Amino acid sequence: MEQGWEKEGARLFLAPVVYSEVLIVQYLVSRSHVHGGRTLEGRLTLPDLIRRLRYGGYLDSKGISQGDQFEILEQLIEAVAGGSGNIKVYYIVDRRGFLEKVKSVYARYAA
To answer: Is 5 helix (H, G, I), strand (E, B) or coil?
Structure first.
């Protein structure tokens, strides 16, 4: 990336558009953690992300319309990926904890 940023000493300055796209990527990466979103750990929730991008003018600049927050998220992913194409969004749910609870309940009542 040749434009949209500047480094001064140890500080990095980003253009608003670049900063918004960094927020989107940071949000997507944080969702891969066990308790993603802005919680007490300091991660951003989807409504907070959308609010920041709306107030920063990013949604308007990319032509992202109003709608359900998950539709907006899909449009954001398309915008960061460079346009619509063969983009597929997968939601992975870790159910190991749930399965352990089911096994313990089943074992308690099966005995």
So the answer is: strand
Between CA 75 and CA 62 the distance in angstroms is 9
**What is the token pair recorded at 74?**
């899909």
Closest CA to 33 of 94, 84, 85: 94
More confident residue, 33 or 14: 14
What tens digit of pLDDT does each residue of 27-72 get?
A: 877 776 655 444 555 667 888 888 888 888 888 888 887 788 888 8
**13 - beta bridge partners?**
6
Q: Measured between alpha carbons, how far is 53 from 43 in angstroms, rounded to an integer?
A: 15
Helix (H, G, I), strand (E, B) or coil at 95: coil
Task: State which amino acid sits at residue 39.
Answer: T
What are residue 107's DSSP bridge partners?
A: none
Task: Give me the residue label for tokens 């089943």.
Answer: 106
The average confidence (pLDDT) of the chain is: 78
